[in-house]
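Can you please make up a protein's amino acid sequence together with its fold in token form to help me picture the idea?
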Amino acid sequence: MKKVLIGVDYNPRSEKVIKEGYALAKKLGAEVCLIHVLADVNYYGVNYPTFMGYEGYNEMQVDLNVISELREVAKKFLEKAAEHLGDPGVSAHLAEGPTSSVILEYARNWNADMLVLGTHSHSVLEKVLMGTTASHILERTKIPVYMIPIKDKK
């Protein structure tokens, strides 16, 4: 294992994923990259004509600066997460698009040997209806995936 890609979402629970993924990568002597995906932020800036009786897009002008600000917040978050590890060799990659597809594509392009992902505690019904990013990745990946369970504290 030479390269470990760690998927990070914008949530305090990601700290556990990053720390445990990083610890594993260091035991393997592997290079580390953190990846965070913004799912289709441009979608919200599309100015559609009225459809299905809904005029919201025509009346509500989306400030395109908001999209730029979202990207900047995500970029700073990801950079800070990488810096927090105290290892200048850790890289970070911010991407946009459908989360599982983007992670898999970047893993291929970066030649990752392993993916590290957190799994959230979703209800059974939610998993059946929507699936999860982790399960979508597991169905399509050709490299090992190390899953770190992340549960809400109740």
Observations:
- Residues 107 and 138 are 13 Å apart (CA to CA).
- The chain has a mean pLDDT of 81.
